[in-house]
Amino acid sequence: MSKRNPQAPSAVIMIRPHYFYANPQTEGDNAFQRLASDEAKIAQLTSDVSLRKQAYAQVTHAAEILNSHGIRVHIFEDETQETPDSVFPNNWFSTHSGGHIAIYPMYAENRRKERRSDIIDMLKQEYRVQDVIDYSGLEHDKLYLEGTGAMVLDHIERVAYAVQSNRTNPLALERFCSHFNYEPMLFDATDENGVAVYHTNVLMCIGTDFVMLGSDMIGDESRREEVIARFKESGRDVIVLTSEQIADFCGNALELQSTHHRLLVLSQRAYDALTSAQRDRLEKSVTLVPLDVSAIETAGGSIRCMLAGIHLAARPMQ
């Protein structure tokens, strides 16, 4: 068993989709999602067998690569046509040290169908779970907080960084932070076209020793400086990403803890967009593991969105 790392989990949950397509209910505020709005295009994507096969194969291959690096992967199948974004499970639940699970309120109606009791049951069987806090009832009041997409959690310093958006409501964020003992750090961020960033985890990645951050997208200068200062105070190397690198999903990466070393899992597209100097800085503390998830990135998310990290203690094997 690898040494437990507060920031980098050693196990993840992945969902392998059988009917993947870009979700028409989320295109309105996801600038990363390449989807035409006309019904004919939506119908075409829904029935695009080639895209579905690519997504299925890419999830399968990614899980195999992670396993080969010593990461425990729990893979679940999604065989319905009603949940096109099910490949992104980190939005509807998260796990936390001490045996806690949170279930989140989702903005898009069809994404609410992604919540699965069999995943929660597996976590209770395989890991030590003390309680499950369910925030999904906040949907009735139109208060949304889409998990570790809406928040990027600094588990070491206990800070929840969050971009305010349709997917991140300040009241829901405050409630989560009160229950889970995080300090909320809420701010606004937009792309070069002035469009609000829909999820915080496309803007930043927090590792044990580093942070990758699209800081120029934080419009308020004082808030931007405050965020950067907090990371520097924690002793982390702050690697600033350009807006172009953010568009290539460089911020949508996840640090994992293998048996002997830490990994930074990112998409091949993101890896290619990093400069050699940025890679060198990252490789001082992590092994870079690029994965081809190009088909899945057409839906507006990348590898970090695909990995629901498990921060729970495993039960001893019988």
How would you describe this structure in keywords?
Amidinotransferase, L-arginine/glycine Amidinotransferase, Chain A, 15 strands, Amdntrnsf_FN0238, single chain, alpha/beta, 318 residues, three-stranded mixed sheet
Walkthrough of the structure:
It comes from Paraglaciecola mesophila. This is Amidinotransferase. Helices cover 29% and strands 21% of the residues. It is an alpha/beta fold. The protein has a single domain, classed as L-arginine/glycine Amidinotransferase, Chain A (5-stranded Propeller), CATH 3.75.10. The strands form five sheets. A three-stranded mixed beta sheet has the order 2-1-15. A hairpin with a 4-residue loop joins strand 12 and strand 13 (262-267).
The CATH topology name reads: L-arginine/glycine Amidinotransferase, Chain A
Characterize the main sheet.
3 strands, mixed
- DSSP strand (E) fraction? 15-25%
> What's the CATH class, please?
Alpha Beta
Instruction: Please provide the ordered H/E string of secondary-structure elements.
Output: EHHEEEHEHEEHEEEHEHEEHHEHHE
Number of domains: 1
On the 0 to 100 scale, the average pLDDT is: 91
Distance N to C terminus: 15 Å
CATH H level, superfamily name: L-arginine/glycine Amidinotransferase, Chain A
Radius of gyration: 18 Å
Tell me what the CATH architecture is.
5-stranded Propeller
Question: Could you name the ranges where pLDDT drops below 50 across 5 or more consecutive residues?
Answer: 34-44
Structural class: alpha/beta
Give a count of the beta strands, DSSP E runs of length 2 or more.
15
Placed side by side, the strands forming the largest sheet appear as 2-1-15
Helix content, binned percent: 25-40%
Shape: globular
**How many helical stretches?**
11
